[in-house]
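During the practical work, I worked with a single protein chain and the C-alpha cells that describe its fold, as given directly below.
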Amino acid sequence: MITSDQLTTRKITKGFLVVLLLSLFTLPLQAQRFLIGLKGGTNFTQASVSNSFSAFQYTAPPAEDLSEKSYKSIFKNTAGTHFGLAASFELNRILGISFEPAYAQYRFGYDNSYTWESTELLEQVVSVSYEHEHRISYVELPLFIRFTAGSGKIAPYVQGGGFINLVHNASKSASATVTDQAGGSTEALTGDNNDVAIDHLMNRYYYGLAGSAGLAFNLPYFRVALDFSYRRGLNTITDKDARFTDMRSSNISFDVMDDIQLNNMQFSLVIHFPVNFGM
C-alpha cells in the first residue's frame, strides 16, 4: 500500500526530473558560454531525528535512560567522499545554471548504552555501550541557479537550488564495549552486526534544498573553483513501512531506524573546461 508520504515523494521527484530534463535540453541553446568538468571532495553529515524508535522496552522506567540514541554532531561523524561532473551554462556574466551530478557517500552515527543491575547484589552491574555507524551511497542530482560577482581572474559566486538523491546502497555497523563491574573487566565486542546491508530500509529517493558559495580562478584554458555547499533534506531517509520488517530489528545491538533527515556539508575542488565561447 502506497502512503501519502510516498505519493508526495514521487510527485516531487517527477517534477524535479522534468525541470532537470527541460533545463539540460534548452539551456545549452541559450547559454553564452558552456563549461563542463569534474568535481570531488569530502563531506560531513548531520542526522536530524523527527521521531525516534527502539527495539528495547523497559519493564520499569529507569531513573536515567542511557538507551536513548545520542547522534553525533556533524564534524564528529566520519567524513564521506563525493566525486562527479560539473556543468555550467552561463547565460551572461552574472547569471547561470549549474548541474552537478555526483556519486557521494554520507556517513553518520550515534551512541547508546544499556545497563543491567542485580536486584540482590548491588555490585553486579553489567554495562554495554554501542557505537553505530551508517553509510549511505547516493547518486546526487543537484540543480543550481548561479550568481557570479565579476569576470576577472578571481570571481566569487553563490548558488541556490535543490537536489534529489537516488539510493545506490546503504549499510550499517555496530560495535559494543561490555563492562562487567563485578568482575572488573572491559571487553570490546563486534558481534554479528558489522557492516550489514540496509538498502531495504531506506526510501529510494531523498530530496531537499541546496546552496553553495565559492571562489573561481579563471585561468587561460580552464577554471578552478574552491566550493562549499550545504544540503538540507526535506523528507525522511527511512522507509517507514519497512522499519520493523528486518528480523535483526529485535536485536538491540542492531536496533531500528529512526525517522531521519540529513543535513550535508560538502567541500569540493571543481575544474571546468570551456566547450564554447559564443557571445
Observations:
- The chain is about 10% helix and 55% strand.
- Residues 105 and 137 are 4 Å apart (CA to CA).
